[in-house]
Amino acid sequence: MTAAHVGERLLTPGEVAALFRVDPKTVTRWATAGRIGSIRTPGGHRRFRESEVKTLLAELTTEANLTNGHA
Fold this sequence. Notes:
The chain has helices spanning 13-20, 24-33, 50-67, and strands at residues 10-11, 39-40, 46-49. The protein is mainly α. The protein has a three-stranded antiparallel beta sheet with strand order 1-3-2. Strand 2 and strand 3 (46-49) form a beta hairpin.
């Protein structure tokens, strides 16, 4: 973890899923496929950096708006 990530909020798969309006298992598949980075807790649970999640959400929202002609 770099100094920039120290103290950053970590999100659960359920929290990420709610932001993207998908099932938490979809978020886990994205992490496994490398589409979104994740870290593991000592107990083996996935957590996602809030800044990375919000960046991906913004990118996908922009792509969706461009595709649908809403730009």
